[in-house]
Amino acid sequence: MRGIWLKSAGLLMVLLLFSLLLAGCWDYHELETLFIVTGVGLDKAAEPEKMEIILQIGKTRSPATGSSDSSNQKDSIILMKAIKDTTVEGIMQLDQNSSRTLLLHHNQMMILGRDIAEAGVKGRIDGFLRNQEMRMEILVMVADRRAEEILSAKLEEEQISSMYLYGMMQDLYNISPYYKIRMLDFVSRLRDGTSSAVAPIVKLDELEDKKELKLEGMAIFKEDKMVGSLNDQELQGYIWTMGDVRQSGVAAQSDKGRAVFHIAKLETKREVGLKPEGNVRVKLSVYATLDVAELRGFGEMTPLELMPYLVDLSEKQISQQIMAAFKAAQELDADIYGFGLDFHRLHPKVWKTIKKQWDQLFRELELDVEVNVKLPATGQIAKSLEMEDAKP
Amino acid sequence: MFLGYIFRKLSFLGNQYALYRRTTGPYDRRSMEGAAKKLDKSLEKNLACLKGMFSDSCDLKIHPLELGPDRWPAAILFIEGMADNNKITEGVLRPMNEWRPEGTLAAGQRLIEELAKKVLCAGSIKPLSSPEEIVLECLSGNTVVLAEGCTSGLIVGTKGWEKRSVSEPQAETVIRGPREGFTENICNNTALIRRKIKSGKLHAESLTVGRRTQTDVRLMYLDDVASRQVVDEVKKRLSRLDVDAVLESGYIEEYIEDAPFSPFSTVGYSEKPDVIAAQILEGRVAILVDGTPFVLTAPMLFIESFQTTEDYYSRPLYASLVRMLRFAGYLITVFAPALYIALTSFHQEFIPTNLLFSIANAREGTPFPVLLETMGMVFAFEILREAGIRLPRPVGQAISIVGALIMGDAAVSAGLVGAPVVITVAITAVASFLVPAQNDAGSVLRIIMMILAAFTGWYGISMGFLAALIHLGSLSSFGVPYFDGLAWTRDQEDTIVRLPLWFMIRRPKAIPETNQIRGRFFIPSFRPHEALDEDEEDADERRGEGT
Amino acid sequence: MRIDKGSISGMQFMFAMACYIQASTLLTSFVAAVTTQDSWLAALFGSLVCLPLIWLFRSLMVMFPNQNLLEILDEVYGPVLGKILGAAYCWFFITLASINLTDLGDFTKLTIMEETPNVVLLIMCILVAAMAVRKGVSLVTRFSDFFVTVAFSILVVSIVLVLNQIKPANFLPIFDQPPIKYIQGTHIIATIPYGELVVFLMIHPNAKMSRRDTGRYLLWAFFLGGFTMLFIVLRDVAVLGNTLDMFTIPSLVTLRLVNLGMALSRVEILFVIILIMLLFFKIMVLYYISVLTVAHLLKIKKYRNLVLALGALMVTYGLTLYPCPVRHAASAQETVPFIWSPFEILLPLLTFIVAKIRKLPVRKEM
After folding, report:
1. Which of B278, B415, B440, C78 has the fewest beta carbons closer than 10 A?
2. Do both A222 and A309 map to the same domain?
3. Would an 8 Å CB–CB cutoff place C266 in contact with chain B?
């Protein structure tokens, strides 16, 4: 029965121990001693082998003093820059030189300057993967010129450009998941060997009174070097090839008029096979459900004729854009679609024999596109104003 | 040095405790000093003796009488205020004054018998010869009649004092359900319970506890339901009690509970007869204490704190929802400040980015570390609560308004504390009122969790939670595992959800009892008119056959 | 001689075993590094291979319903050899407990407490576990059903949360690795989660269950734990694909990827909850069993005084066991399964055979 007393004595000891240990809480960081990093940018430095590491830090403002301040637009971010060999060295240097500890957990994205992307990234991002504070969900983007100008941009809508870009990519993600390239997707492609990594390109437009960030195509990486890019049209083709599109639209022009369609759903099926002659053939079936969004022209057609015509028109447009993107990729020898991976997954035995020459095979790859469009709805109105029947 | 002192003190207490535990067995009530064993023949001597035993108190009234034509000396004794004056006048004084015995008075013992049989008119009359017992009876409000030459006195039941009538309890209010509450009078309370359970099996047993206060304590339990072990254990612990005073049931609770150093209480209490009746029906033992409206129940389970009577009076779906809300509320009140500390000062990665920015903006420029800030606010809340309870109601409200609205707002706008802390502590405070029975345990745990969180963040909280869980698992109340109501794989009908009453055919397994079946299982007809319709059809058919 | 007289129900025993297997699933990263996208196959094969092992444990439990492992050894091999084997098992249990303690420390460091020294984390854990161990078997296994429930619900929730990230193509190609890798993976799965069930031979006399129920409970525990492991591996493979083998803790990365709008992201705290809870349970069980074994070997009737001493031993042992987590992972992949096999598979099998030959246990009838 002494147990109770011993126990309480033990408890007291433990409590005292805790209060003593409170003096040395190792992971304890008060919020006001932290800099919340929202974006990391990498740029090539003047010296070879070195790079500029740019950190964008969202600044916190005290609500008591800062709310009515007119200059807070200026103050909303802090940009820090270091020139070092590796990312982590740069971050460590910045950490030591700043008044607060850097918190990297809330980093939203890694922006690669164009020059560094072209020089190769494999050796540059190890620190991002290794560091426990770096999450695999951060976005990877390529800056049209330099990463610094993207990170330092102050926009009308959002003062922290990384948050703006994150929102933008989240929006695009709702259209198709293939717009949003996370670190995981990027690394997965890099590790794969045959597939080429892609990353969206972001461009800063400086208008007279304000700045704008825009998505400007997709960068294509061969191995780990950026070798080229897809323009907007090709990017759309690429996204359609990958399938799983839930929004966005198709615009098609013919001599009779211009039609714009909403994509309600677009899915693809790919069949990868080896032809007897030895080259690879990919059969791509696209199944799309579209809505008519807007029509211009088509004056001389009756609605009855129009619908099959529109189906045909949209099918052609989709297939044309897909082919355009494919041609662009083929020219760069970059398997951005992961056809090689498909092959590997479906025919693992054959793959072992052809893996070495995949570059060659991809160059000669045949892509058969078959588009099936369903056009169930015409929107709120059945006939357009310009159509014959519609005129009273 | 300080530590050494504490250890010495603790081991001393430990020894005392061990000694005490070893010497079990009912304590013998020490006899009062200076008292004679038996009454004397002389009235004067007796009166002097009794007076001495009452230490010449001024509220002891001695009324000398002369009986009959012989002017036989006699006296009545009672304590002013404890005895009903009407009863004394009507039942003792008037009959004795108007008594005209035929012939000579019987002397000695006969006289007393005659008085009891023929003269006095009261509910209970009994002769007693030991001065000690006479004093006790007198102290409980009865009147003593003594006569010259008699070696025993008569105790006349004249108890009656000013008492509160049955009214709505202040601490436990209900929207639906009986509104009567216990009073300070033990007889009344016993009757209130008996009115709920009109069964001969409801056993009531009387004890007296407290050397000086001589408090009446009653045990009530269902003879055929309550487990013998539990009843014996309660009796054993009560009989071991050797204390000066028992002023409230809290005294008894503290002396008989299993884990005096645990933050969790292992004896339940309530102020409402319907609650106590329900507890008794589930096989628990109720302990009534004279002088307080709070009745104890044992054994107590952890889950009891989350059950209210209204759960059973309102419909099961809503009752289950509220039950879950209560669990959530308890978790919030224990863990919310600790979580706030852990998240903002250890694990910023778990906070969504936008929220982090708003918290960081609010924290910017506040002078204190998070732990101090949160501790301070929790402390301030406890102060306000205590102040609100102790003060008269209108003033209490004023205090809470001043405290909560003005002080909180001023502290935030002055930049002394961040708004998120105020919000966190406010939620904590409000949630703590959801489970009033575990409020004190919650407050203690909250502070421990906060310290752990400030020490090792989420890991500390997890370890604290596991330790609390293990502690709860190791507790027992009168031999019944305390945490048993929350076994996750069995006996779930009345824990996190409350199933319909017709589903609960057995008494809760966690409380040991001898008679498990509560009622027969029956499903009330879900469409009550269906049967009726069928009957009508049958009747129609029959009618058709008839014609 | 029964040291701990507490008794638990068969259900409790089952949940304790299920929870124990679940706790081991946190170590699936060891397998992931070996068999990558086919890890789920390794998990499946490993589980199937273990069915005979489960049957073996069941037979031992049924043959000696009132004797724990040490007493069985004593009876089967005689007092001298039995004691030696008992001492070996004692070392095995303590090492196992220390390794798991280190795992808890390492994983906690990797996930939430980067700078806190290991020793603080371990001491806190051991102190809390000691609270339960002192009270005996009923308290040690008491919350296993709660832990299993929580772990299961978190697993289900996490699967729902990552549904939008699952790519079924990640499972392909199947059987792409050299066969030796599958054998290695299967062996890891067989020894680490399932073989360790041998520790429950120490407490089965405390469980109240009939002959018939023993097998049933063991099988249920096996299914509960096995399914959890299978689903965890499947989830991780489906989400992470070919990057699976890159990470030290794939499950953590999987949960970090959860993104359902801005509000429902950063839910890796779910993983941390399971991690701490399940590993704590495992450590508590192993701690208890180590204490029991030592008390048994030294013939100590009251083991309470042993608890804290053994805890201190385990902390120091655990801290000095591996110089770094990389070595730890390497040994879990390569050496540990071979060292553990004798204790988990060969010795029980041998014991079973010898007992059969010697026609033990001798029925003491009248």
Report:
1. C78
2. no
3. yes
Of A129, A170, A348, the CB nearest to C176: A348
Q: Are residues A186 and A267 in the same domain?
A: no
Mean pLDDT score, A196-221 = 85
B456·A105 Cβ contact <8 A = no
Q: What Å distances lie between residue C93 and C97, C257, C340, C342, CA to CA?
A: 6, 37, 11, 13
A contact chains, 3+ CB pairs < 8 A? B, C
Q: Which of A69-73, B223-227, C34-38 has the highest mean pLDDT?
A: B223-227
The parts of chain B modelled with pLDDT lower than 50 are: 25-34, 546-547
Same domain, yes or no: A102 and A200: yes
Indicate yes or no: CB of B357 within 8 angstroms of CB of A7.
Answer: no
pLDDT tens-place string over residues C15-29: 999 999 888 877 666
At B224-268, the pLDDT tens digits run 888 888 899 899 888 888 888 888 888 898 888 888 888 898 898
The number of distinct structural domains making up chain A is 2
Do A245 and A225 share a structural domain?
Answer: no
> Is residue A1 one of the residues assigned to a domain?
no
Whether the CB of A136 is below 8 Å from some CB of chain C: the reply is yes
**Residue A326 pLDDT > 60, yes or no?**
yes
Q: Which residue has the tokens 């990263």?
A: C29
Three-state secondary structure string covering B89-153: HHHHHHHHHHCCCCCCCCCCHHHHHHHHHHHCCCCCEEEECCHHHHHHHHHCCCEEEEECCCCCE
Q: Identify the contact set of chain B against chain C, taking CB-CB distances under 8 A.
A: 346-347, 349-354, 456-460, 462-463, 466-467, 469-471, 473-474, 487-490
Q: Which residue in chain A is spatially nearest to B258 when comparing CA positions?
A: A4
Q: What is the pLDDT of residues B136-155, one digit of tens each?
A: 888 888 888 888 888 888 88
Mean pLDDT of C62-89: 87
Q: Is residue A199 part of a domain?
A: yes
> Average pLDDT in the C199-224 region?
86
Any C CB within 8 A of A345 CB: yes
A331 and A285 housed in the same domain: yes
Q: Which residue is closest to A15 within chain B, CA to CA?
A: B448
Are both A167 and A249 inside the same structural domain?
no
Asked which of A203, A230, A257 is the last residue of a domain, the reply is A230
The answer to whether residue A13 is domain-embedded is no
β-partners of residue A83 are A52
At A74, the amino acid letter reads: K
CB contact at 8 A, C203 and C55? no
Contacts of C241 in chain A (CB under 8 A): 188
What is this model's ipTM? 0.91
Give the end of a domain, one of A196, A230, A264.
Answer: A230
Question: Do A62 and B349 count as a contact with CB atoms less than 8 A apart?
Answer: no
Q: Is the peptide bond before B169 cis (omega within 30 degrees of 0)?
A: no
> What residues of chain A, 46 to 75, have a C-beta less than 8 Å from chain B?
58, 60-65
| Cα–Cα distance, B46 to B153 (Å, whole number) | 10
Q: Which CATH number fits the domain that encloses residue A359?
A: 3.30.300.210
Q: How far is B253 from chain A (nearest CA, A)?
A: 18
Residues of A with Cβ-Cβ distance to C253 under 8 angstroms: 136, 184
